[in-house]
Amino acid sequence: MIKAVIFDLWGTLFYEDINPHPFVEFSRKLGKNIEYGYKNEEEYQFIKKFERHFMTKPYEDVRIPIKSFLKELKIEATDGLIEDLNQILSKTGPFQKPYPETFKVLRELKHKEYRLGLISNCMYYGFKQLEQKFDLKEFFDATYMSFKTKILKPNPEIFRLMIDELRVNKKETAMVGDSIKDDVQAAENFGIKGILIDRQNKHPECKIRITTLEELNKFI
Fold first, then answer.
1. Residue-number span of the structural domain to which 51 is assigned
2. Number of other residues whose CB lies within 10 A of the CB of residue 203
3. How many domains is the chain built from?
4. Same domain, yes or no: 153 and 193
5. CA gyration radius, the chain
6. Does one domain contain both 85 and 179?
7. CA 136, CA 119: separation in Å to the nearest integer?
8. pLDDT digit string, tens, across residues 150-185
9. Which of 91, 113, 141 is the last residue of a domain?
10. Is 211 helix (H, G, I), strand (E, B) or coil?
11. What rounded mean pLDDT belongs to the chain?
12. How far from the centroid of its chain's Cα atoms is residue 131's Cα?
């Protein structure tokens, strides 16, 4: 019996209503063309490098991780390039929105007395802006952001910390997220149920899959 539901943040509960997505624009500026998500292992590894530089410390000024990221990529960190990338990553706040069903589903789960957790690989700057607009503490019993924990999904340690705080065991827990590798497979490798939120219907082959959070009851 499921007693706790852990959610990913971006692409699961919230999104950035801006086109192109800032990460897409960022990657294009560096000669890549990575859509929101990834198509192959090379793109996935680029995203992981980005997360290690930008999402494991609470940076107020993203110019700092920009410089270290460019250094790893062996790209010359000119003042103009640094400022362009800074502008791209710093403009997301006004475009942060919940999916239409997000708060309705969270309230229903709380009413049914599920314990709710939030795990995200995310930048401090963006999360800070989100918290200023929405009271996430109203819904979640535990919140683990990578910039605080210094742990990035799919590291299983983040799931261990979460279920310990929620006071549940693996069989009583489900993880909902939009990434097959970082959410679904990571959860299943740890021993908890993984549920893919596939809003654009890209992965019909996935057995435990929903296209809206309102379908979550089918699996919990």
1. 22-91
2. 12
3. 2
4. yes
5. 17
6. no
7. 12
8. 999 999 999 999 999 999 999 999 999 999 999 999
9. 91
10. coil
11. 95
12. 15
CB 195 within 8 A of CB 174: yes
- For residues 130 and 59, membership in a common domain is answered with no
pTM exceeds 0.85, yes or no: yes
The pLDDT value recorded for residue 126 is: 92
Provide the pLDDT for residue 94: 84
User: How many CA atoms, within 13 angstroms, populate the side-chain half-sphere of residue 29?
Assistant: 22
The CATH number covering residue 134 comes to: 3.40.50.1000
Instruction: Report d(CA 143, CA 119) in Å as an integer.
Output: 6
Domain stop point among 69, 91, 113: 91
pLDDT-wise least confident of 16-25, 33-42, 89-98, 196-205: 33-42
- With H, G, I as helix, E, B as strand and everything else as coil, classify residue 206: coil
Q: What's the pLDDT band for 3 if we cut at 50, 70, 90?
A: very high
- The answer to whether the beta carbons of residues 184 and 196 sit under 8 Å apart is yes
Q: What is the pLDDT of residue 40?
A: 86
C-alpha distance across the termini of the chain, in Å: 8
Q: Are residues 106 and 8 in the same domain?
A: yes
**Distance in angstroms (rounded) separating the CA atoms of residues 76 and 73:** 9
Note the pLDDT of residue 36. Answer: 67
Strand segments (E) across the chain: 4-7, 14-16, 96-98, 115-120, 142-145, 173-177, 193-197, 209-210
Kindly report, residue by residue over 32-60, the tens digit of the pLDDT.
988 767 778 999 999 999 999 999 999 99
204 sits in the region (left: phi over 0; alpha: psi -120 to 50; else beta) called: alpha
